[in-house]
Hints:
The chain is mostly helical.
Amino acid sequence: MKLQDYIQRGQVKKSSPDISLSKSLVKTAKNDLEFLDSLRISPISARKIMSNYYDVLRSILEAISALDGYKIYSHEAFTYFLAEKGENLISKKFDRFRKIRNQINYYGKDISVEEVKENIKEVKGLIDELSTKYLKK
């Protein structure tokens, strides 16, 4: 699969770069991170916290794609968006987190506190790396 396949399916739309949308998404993501960082991870909260950190990462990707003139409606398409930007390792990591989030949200899979803590470190590292590379202009 390629990003072009998602464009042909209508799951990605090409448009003009949207700087204001990108800035708004980054601001919201920062606020969400601040909130999430204030929460205590417990066996009861672990699933929701993991899912929400994934959502922040996806928001950062939406901000980057808005600057590139894309509106992406499919979470899976972000994997190919990243690959086309030459971010193959980040693409694979994002897809792994997408699958974890799907297992949590749609299949009732539990996730341990330890696993969430490890994943959060990695997600935050990806957010920092992507923000520095694509959003600090």
